[in-house]
From TrEMBL:
Matching SUPFAM superfamilies: CheY-like
DNA-binding region (UniProt annotation): 136-241
Protein name per Swiss-Prot or TrEMBL: Response regulator transcription factor
SMART domains associated with the record: REC, Trans_reg_C
Modified-residue entries (4-aspartylphosphate), positions: D60
Sorted UniProt keywords: DNA-binding, Phosphoprotein, Two-component regulatory system
Organism: Streptomyces javensis
Ranges where the OmpR/PhoB-type domain occurs: 136-241
Positions of the Response regulatory domain: 11-125
Xref: Gene3D superfamilies: 3.40.50.2300, 6.10.250.690, Winged helix-like DNA-binding domain superfamily/Winged helix DNA-binding domain
Alphabetical list of InterPro entries matching this protein: CheY-like_superfamily, OmpR/PhoB-type_DNA-bd, Sig_transdc_resp-reg_receiver, WalR-like, WH-like_DNA-bd_sf
Length: 248
């Protein structure tokens, strides 16, 4: 493990056991002003993520000690705001979906170019909102309250923990209640207008968002009015007002 770069730059943790790829990524990121920590096992990567302030994790799936999918899940659970980009030689769609569903924000299939990696990083970092200057007005629809400025979501009296992209997706929809929002608009708002990855990322994130909200509703002590995240086939999504609690 080595740590390089200034503390006031974006901090990147590279978890990659391949010597050639690790050195190449470390040198390339360092030359573009990133602070880089490179480690070669999943266990040491999790230790470094706990020890250091980390903004971005570049995670190889084929690690020698533990599967990268398990590392992604633990990173997402313990560090919900970190940006996770998977580096993988597994190009099958199911592997990509499993990685995204485990908490990754994006992926690159090996071999990849440093230029593309840097472009992906810039795109994701541009979409990260700055810390709010002051409190904003929360949006409430039914029993769902979304405080965009504070990045908090509540259902009834319970706080709902959302991953960064899940929250950003919900924030776009609550700003347009009852309106159809196209897939293209959602990808541009939540990911980047120059996004060139698969739009399957949107579907995976939406499915995960639905599960978290439904789990929170099921765990509530009393019935709650949860808005509907409606799929508009061939177009996008819409946030509909909740159905009456006594409806079938």
């Amino acid at each position: 493990m080595r740590t390089t770069g200034a503390k006031d730059t974006v901090s990147v943790l590279v978890i990659e056991d391949d010597e050639v790829i690790g050195r190449h990524v470390e040198a390339g990121l360092r030359s573009h002003g990133y602070a880089v920590t490179w480690t070669r096992t999943g266990g040491s990567g999790l230790t470094e993520a706990d020890r250091l302030p980390v903004d971005v994790v570049l995670l190889d799936l084929g690690l020698p000690d533990v599967d990268g999918i398990d590392v992604a899940r633990q990173l997402r659970d313990e560090h919900p705001d970190v940006l996770i980009l998977i580096l993988t030689a597994r190009s099958e769609e199911i592997d990509v979906i499993v990685g995204l569903d485990a908490g990754a924000d994006d992926y690159l299939v090996k071999p990849f170019s440093l230029t593309v990696l840097l472009a992906r990083l810039r795109a994701h970092l541009r979409r990260r909102p700055p810390a709010p200057a002051g409190p904003g007005e929360p949006v409430r629809i039914g029993d769902l309250t979304v405080d965009i400025a504070a990045r908090r979501c509540r259902l009834g009296d319970r706080e709902v923990e959302l991953r960064p992209k899940e929250f950003e997706l919900l924030a776009v929809l609550v700003r347009h209640p009852g309106e159809a929002v196209s897939r293209e608009s959602l990808m541009a708002e939540v990911w980047d207008e120059n996004w060139f990855g698969p739009t399957k990322t949107l579907d995976v994130t939406m499915s995960s968002l639905r599960r978290r909200l439904q789990a929170a509703a099921s765990a509530a002590h009393a019935p709650v009015a949860l808005p509907d995240l409606t799929t508009l086939r061939g177009h996008g999504y819409r946030l509909d007002p909740p159905r009456p609690l006594d409806s079938n």
